Amino acid sequence: MDMGGMDHGGAPPAAASKKVIMHMSLYWGKDVWILFADWPGTSLGQYILSLIIVFLGAVIVEWLAFLKTNQKPGLNPIPTGFFQAVVYGFRVFFAYCVMLAVMSFNLGVVIVAVVGHGVGYWLFGTQAFKKKSVEPTLKD
């Protein structure tokens, strides 16, 4: 049965002219698709920009993981709980975007994602940059 010239098989016409290689193992190179078709493009500058974006995304995931959203006494628990849920939603969004970027199997993307998570944990999860509280001491 003829469907009026509609082709239901294969790729869309725009993608038919491009050769898409789906890597099933880690590879190195600037020709990669991260999250969207044609992103980051084919130039080295666009690839480096995409690596910076993935790195920052991983740092943001760690920042949101250690963001203090604890309830303070006297505050209404409903708005505070809503704020905590919104922060958690943003954290999950960024975590999934970084995970999908890593699924491109590009070694550069994998490396910057791991380093970004490590730097984010170092900045926000360790005591390296926390303000130390000074306990007053009594002199005799």
UniProtKB/TrEMBL annotation:
<protein>
    <recommendedName>
        <fullName>Copper transport protein</fullName>
    </recommendedName>
</protein>
<comment type="similarity">
    <text>Belongs to the copper transporter (Ctr) (TC 1.A.56) family. SLC31A subfamily.</text>
</comment>
<keyword id="KW-0406">Ion transport</keyword>
<keyword id="KW-0813">Transport</keyword>
<feature type="transmembrane region" description="Helical">
    <location>
        <begin position="47"/>
        <end position="66"/>
    </location>
</feature>
<keyword id="KW-0186">Copper</keyword>
<keyword id="KW-1133">Transmembrane helix</keyword>
<dbReference type="InterPro" id="IPR007274">
    <property type="entry name" value="Cop_transporter"/>
</dbReference>
<dbReference type="GO" id="GO:0005375">
    <property type="term" value="F:copper ion transmembrane transporter activity"/>
</dbReference>
<feature type="transmembrane region" description="Helical">
    <location>
        <begin position="78"/>
        <end position="101"/>
    </location>
</feature>
<feature type="transmembrane region" description="Helical">
    <location>
        <begin position="107"/>
        <end position="124"/>
    </location>
</feature>
<keyword id="KW-0472">Membrane</keyword>
<keyword id="KW-0812">Transmembrane</keyword>
<keyword id="KW-0187">Copper transport</keyword>
<dbReference type="GO" id="GO:0005886">
    <property type="term" value="C:plasma membrane"/>
</dbReference>
<dbReference type="Pfam" id="PF04145">
    <property type="entry name" value="Ctr"/>
</dbReference>
